[in-house]
Amino acid sequence: MSATWTAVLVASAGCYLLKLAGLSVPAAWVEQPWVARVVDFVPAALLAALVVVQGLTSGDEIVVDGRLAGLAVAALALALRAPFIVVLLLAGAAGALVHVVVG
Amino acid sequence: MPPDRAQTLRDAVGLGLAVGLYGVAFGAAADAAGLDVWQALVLSAVMFTGASQFALIGVLGAGGSALAAVGSALLLGTRNTVYGVRLVPLLRPRGRLRRAGTAHWVIDETTALALAAPDRAMAGLAFLVGGATLYLTWNATTVVGALGAAALGGTARAALDAVVPAAFLALLWPRLGRAFPEPAVQRRVALGGAVVALALTPFVPPGVQVVTAVVAVALAGRPRRAVAS
Fold it and tell me: How many structural domains does chain B have?
């Protein structure tokens, strides 16, 4: 089995078990103040890391290209409360434009 | 139909459809990351939690190891555990089978719908209808996105490359606003995560910097009652 399939299947099973755990374990285990604290803030740290890794890196290098233009446009659209799909379309258009202009 | 019930159904179907359409972006991003349409579909059908799905393909697409990819997906999946705890008193899933089925649809959107419903009966309805609508739409649009992206040429590929980071930004954005508790702390943690990930990029294998960015959670400080400020 390829590494990709292994990752897909293991992560899928793991994410399901995390959901099931919430419905199965005593609430007191999860409602520890520090557990709640960590869980509340994990998405912010990880999603921000993914924004910069996807937007600014290629392998082990930091690269500036059309993706950064896409991020800037997306940030503006999000600030103006544009819907998700519009944000993504605008970011894609910005990326394509930079690709066409810069080559 | 009583107004409460009609309103609950409308909200659940509306949210399910709106968020479900976002599956196009996931399918396309999965293709760009090198996954085939079956792998994308298994993620949407079995994992069925958007942020973790995007994280897994994001790390794999960046050339990361399976371990780093799985780690990122699981870390983002922990919040569903907390949602489950909040949903138990509302949904009261009885029996092993019903609990196993309910668990599959415990995500951001269904939790928000159930918690916003006016009473327990409506919470169950909102969870079920919202979950079903979102599940079906999300899986269908995943296939559309994956097949569509596979047919793209050079410029469209560049567009897709720009869509993926923007998708993560769109997932992150609402957490930094006033609708979330402690937005200033969320922003500090997000900034910390971004700095850690960028600083580590030249030195660690691809994907590892994403999982490592979780140390930025320490910037949130202790649970509230212990915070001096």
Answer: 2
pLDDT tens-digit map of B128-167: 999 999 999 999 999 999 999 888 878 888 888 899 899 8
Identify the residue whose tokens are 């915070």: B227
Report pLDDT digits (tens) over B24-72: 989 999 999 999 999 999 999 999 999 999 999 999 998 999 999 999 9
The verdict on B110 and B190 lying in the same domain is: no
Distance from CA of A102 to the nearest CA of B (A): 11
State which residue of chain B sits closest to A82, comparing Cα positions. Answer: B170
Domain co-membership, B150 together with B192: no
Strands A61-62 and A57-58 turn out to be: antiparallel
Q: Does B168 touch chain A (CB under 8 A)?
A: yes
pTM metric for this prediction: 0.85
> Are B62 and B47 contained in the same domain?
yes
Residue A62 sits at φ, ψ, to 5 deg, of -95, 125
Q: How many residues does chain B have?
A: 229
Q: Could you list the residue range(s) of the whole structural domain that residue B55 is in? A: 3-173
List chain A residues with CB under 8 Å of B189.
41, 44-45, 48
